[in-house]
Amino acid sequence: MPHFERLYNFACWLTHDREEAEDLVQETYAKALKGFASFRPGTNFRAWIYKILRNAFLSSRTGLKQTAMVPLDLEDEEEILPAVEETPESILLRRSDGERVQLALEQLPLAYREILLLCEVEEMSYREISDALAIPMGTVMSRLSRARKTLGEGLRLQLQKG
Amino acid sequence: MRTFDAHVRNCLSCSADALTRVQMKRAIQVAGKRYTPSAEFRKRMQQKIAAKPRRSLGLGWTLAATAAAIIVVGTLTSVYLGTRSGRNQVFSEIADLHVATLASSSPVDVISTDRHTVKPWFQGKIPFAFNLPELQNTGFSLLGGRMTYLDQTPGAHLIYDVGKHHISVFVFQERSLPARLDKDPVSPNQLTFNMETWTQGGLRYFVIGDASAANIDSLAKLFKVAS
């Protein structure tokens, strides 16, 4: 079963529920087998199957609830200033253990969580992410930048709370 | 890439930014690999996919068989590409570790030019022991070392100087590494840095830096003799 563990991990992060994630993975493979005619040979299989899983999630009850919780100024361009010496983010990351990072990831809005997982955990290229999420490459880059920033803010809040 | 690398070495803000990005990537990678499917679910899925309806051979069955064959090919291709990309990922991570450490304000945790000080420092911190070479009259000098991780595998990271160039030497247990690596040295043309890697005594060594390929090879030979 191609990408089984990774798809399951990704599904859990989307749904926050193992049982629902199992259903999602089952549905993904069923749709992949059924709709294989739509897969174009020579294109990226991984992006294709992740797209199926994501679309299945978005049309599920949990997915509809999460995507209804907007808003995100996702396409706003913001100048990202270069860091000076050691950055607050690098200090935060050094002081944050794995649990804090997991909590910060969980608390991210869906759009930021999924793109960070696809980029950093699945190590997809921007092109693959663009295909899987059906968004332009420019949006991939700007959304990733905001997602990292929001994660950093989440870690900062946790550390302030102690 | 070389231009970028040269700029990062000389620009404090950009090197700090690069370090933050590498640290964030690693933190998310570790935190993100959180969920694994249960054995029961895996078995259930395998049974579902393996189950075939009992019917006479017809167009539907032929199409289903063809689709299954294509998925097997897709799987094998994914596995092959995954293996190759896994190898490239290891090399890429080694390069990231090298850059991130040099950009750090404290690149080593044990500062010493004496191998008899650096080697015992690692005892109890990593699950293996390794030898450092004697450097007298070689042109190389040891700056120190630190612990490092490659995909959650603990290892040793040593930093050497030759001329104005820094060279990193990484040592890990071969069996703990996430991807199979070729025994042959990596071609310098494939990487921004010059690198050599080999296995010896159950340990995997990486020697990487922007020093010349000859210097990388010389330091690698010193380690091979010492091990």
Query: How many domains make up the coordinates of chain A?
Result: 2
**What fraction of the residues of chain B are assigned to beta strands by DSSP?**
15-25%
Report the top-level CATH class of the largest domain in chain B: Alpha Beta
User: How many helices of chain B in DSSP terms?
Assistant: 6
How would you describe this structure to a colleague?
The complex is a heterodimer of chains A (162) and B (227). Chain A has 2 domains: 4-68, RNA polymerase sigma factor, region 2, helix turn helix motif (Rna Polymerase Sigma Factor, Chain: A); 88-161, Winged helix-like DNA-binding domain superfamily/Winged helix DNA-binding domain (Arc Repressor Mutant, subunit A). In chain A, 70% of the residues lie in helices and 0% in strands. Chain A contains 9 helices and no strands. Chain A has helices spanning 4-15, 18-34, 45-58, 61-68, 88-95, 98-107, 110-121, 126-133, 137-161. The relative contact order of chain A is 0.14. Chain B folds into 2 domains: 2-82, no CATH class; 107-226, Phosphorylase Kinase, domain 1 (2-Layer Sandwich), CATH 3.30.200.100. The two termini of chain B are 34 Å apart. At the A-B interface, helix 1, helix 2, helix 5, helix 6 and helix 7 of A face helix 2, helix 3 and helix 4 of B.
Topology:
The complex is a heterodimer of chains A (162) and B (227).
Chain A: H1 4-15, H2 18-34, H3 45-58, H4 61-68, H5 88-95, H6 98-107, H7 110-121, H8 126-133, H9 137-161
Chain B: H1 2-10, H2 12-32, H3 39-50, H4 59-103, E1 110-111, H5 115-121, E2 140-150, E3 153-162, E4 165-173, E5 194-200, E6 203-209, H6 213-226
Antiparallel strand pairs in B: 1-2, 2-3, 3-4, 4-6, 5-6
Helix pairs in contact in B: 1-2, 2-4
